[in-house]
Design goal:
alpha+beta, 6-stranded antiparallel sheet, 26 strands
Amino acid sequence: MKLRKLLLFPLPGLLVLTSLFSCGEDRWKEYYPLTGRDLWMDSLMREVYLWYEDIPASKGLNYFQGPEAFLKSILSKNDKGFSTVDTIMDTPLPSYGFDYTLYKIATSDTTYNALVSYVAKNSPAEEAGLERGSWIMLVDGDSITKKTEERLTDGGARTLHIGKYVIVKDENNEDTEGDTETEDGDSDDEDDKGVGVIQEIGDVTLPAVRPVTESPVYVNGVIALEGTDYKIAYLAYNSFTAGTAESNEKYNNELRTFSQQCKQLNINNFILDLRYNSGGEMECVQLLADILVPADRLESPFAFLQYNDKQSSKNCDLILDSQLLQGGANLNLPKVYIITSGTTAGAAEMLINCLKPYMTIVLIGQTTKGEYVATETFINPKYPWALRPVVCEVFNSNGEANYSTGFKPDISINETSYLQYYLPLGDPNEILLNTALGVIAGAIELPKSQTTETAVKSFTTKKNIRKGLIIK
């Protein structure tokens, strides 16, 4: 759903394989169309890949494979899917603009309800009225099965019968959660006294797929807690953009504008929602850090990029560069509350790691993915493919990059265990935002020593920037 701009970089010379010659006869012209792409990938990886020493010897490689299979055959064991290769696309793929998770219906082993987990702005799904937390019960009048599920992704216009999750009260009229079995057999058993059910709402028309381009600023706003002096900024930031230079600047200006609004309103707390943020470009990370950090930390070291020994001339320091704030404002915050999930990765984790030396970071949600390296995009004009190998490791100002297993939250919450509060991002009753508000208000106490599952109830309520570098 996101537009990606692929950058062209100088390429090293290609490898020549003796296996493509026989009896002194040059058969290069015959084989090159079949092997040229893989040979280019191999040659490039041996120069720029952070773990190039782990690439197998050329004589043992098969250069007739598809690009994904070939890349997989040469990756280091340290590379947990960080390096990728994919086709070049100038426009976003057509999409309905929503994601979902299947939940088994308790009375059937073959039918499901689909919980909508994400709805893109300006998408067919949003046009249809779907929201995060909506339940799809029927598609074109049919139950959702493994066979009919394809209608949720095949691209045509559909009629969806939707519902919402509600709590059936027990004999004592108490609100309780029930057992809802998921596709993999798990359950969200919060309390065995009551039952959660899907209450029908009615039919909606889902238009056919179309290209969807999203702003990384998904939701932003200010929340005032009733009866308190707290003025809390909320920002759901779904990508550290990796589009064209023009689009990056457009989206960065959205951040700058929001920071100015926060400054004018004397914001004293900030909740940053990164649960759907899987990475992006480094200069966008620096800008957001410049907005959040204490003012006296501007111009301080922010990160250090360390490349392999062949590329060591590229090693560089990044700073908290106040020049990036032009049109924006530093909020001079001592603390930030960050909502995370297993999807939180790359640039989002870099932000957490590089802010830690300068301010208190409170993490709420689930353990992040653990992508502690950066990739860079390379293309060869002869082939419609882009290669994004890991090129460097990213350290904070204390020389730390020890989150290969992810950052564990201070308050661990599996939001699908609270389906009543599985709501659109920005809704104060949404379970993870509600928890952050509770911590700020003092209604929820942070664990002192270890991450715990917390039961939560709703309450009222510059020059050194390397362009094109993607944090993984």
